[in-house]
Predict the structure of Vacuolar protein sorting-associated protein 55 homolog.
Amino acid sequence: MFSASILLQILACAIYSNWWPLLSALMYVLVPMPCMFFGGGTTQFLTSRDGGGWIDAAKFLTGASAVGSLAIPIILRHANLIGTGAMFIEFTSFFIFVCTVLCFHRASLEDEW
């Protein structure tokens, strides 16, 4: 599923001969970073109510990265740097990426060996 998301990112660029939509792929790299640095590499802290300075910072940065993934195509479309079709392909790519992350999170919760 992640590969399909990246393929849609590249198609949004290649079909419209404009490489600006690839800017939102940068956010796909930034989204898991708070989990890796502050959450110990797991996604379980995102659904817990436990707080603390670093845990709250990780939740905020993950949310900001997710909002940025949606906002970048909208901003680029508003600035007329990309077409409407490329924006919708970006949204589809983001939806597939979110589904991938949710499947990974669900699988990691059930992984009790």
Notes: The radius of gyration is 16 Å. Helices lie at 2-15, 23-30, 33-38, 53-78, 84-109.
